[in-house]
Design brief:
CATH superfamily: Winged helix-like DNA-binding domain superfamily/Winged helix DNA-binding domain
CATH topology: Arc Repressor Mutant, subunit A
Distance between the termini: 33 Å
CATH architecture: Orthogonal Bundle
Order of helices and strands: HHHEHHEEHH
Strand order of the largest sheet: 1-3-2
Structural class: mainly alpha
CATH class: Mainly Alpha
Number of helices: 7
Helix content: 55-70%
Radius of gyration: 19 Å
Strand content: 5-15%
Number of strands: 3
Number of domains: 1
Length: 158
């Protein structure tokens, strides 16, 4: 067994039955470690990863978006997007307004308070990303992204 391998870390006595099993478990274990760090950082600013994701989308767009459009751009699936938006609205981090043309459509917009909060998060988040992944060369990070996108494309179709 390789030192630092998943098999060593989880004290698995036998080799994995299939490379797909090892790769999937590696993805899950890595995600868990990275997510813990991200959760801790965002929590220090009073945000959950899903809340940050909504605000990141709105800031990036620069204009109000329909709720369903925001939901479709989320990194992780949020089953209760309305409740998530309720919490952000109560914290005065976004506003909602019904469309005049189609009352079924609700637009959400980021507030100045949220923009100020995100400005506080930006550098600590960049520092965290650097500390977690900065040991990898740019070419390695590009290859990792390419491979993850390839895996995800198939998973999204099934």
């Amino acid at each position: 067994m390789r030192q630092g391998s998943l098999q060593t870390q989880i004290k698995k006595k036998r080799a994995f039955d299939h490379p797909e099993e090892e790769a999937l478990l590696n993805l899950l274990k890595t995600n868990d470690h990275l997510q813990i760090h991200l959760d801790r950082l965002l929590r220090s600013f009073g945000l959950t990863p899903s809340q940050y994701n909504v605000l990141r989308i709105l800031r990036g767009e620069g204009q109000p978006l329909p709720c369903l459009e925001v939901a479709s751009r989320m990194i992780t699936v949020v089953p209760a997007i309305t409740a998530l938006l309720d919490r952000l609205e109560q914290a005065e981090l976004l506003t909602r307004e019904r469309s005049a043309e189609d009352r079924r459509v609700v637009y959400i917009a980021i507030t100045k308070k949220a923009l100020a909060l995100l400005a506080q998060v930006d550098q600590p988040l960049a520092d965290l990303q650097q500390s977690l992944l900065g040991h990898m060369a740019a070419a390695e990070l590009q290859e990792l992204s390419r491979l993850l996108e390839k895996a995800r494309q198939f998973a999204e179709r099934t």
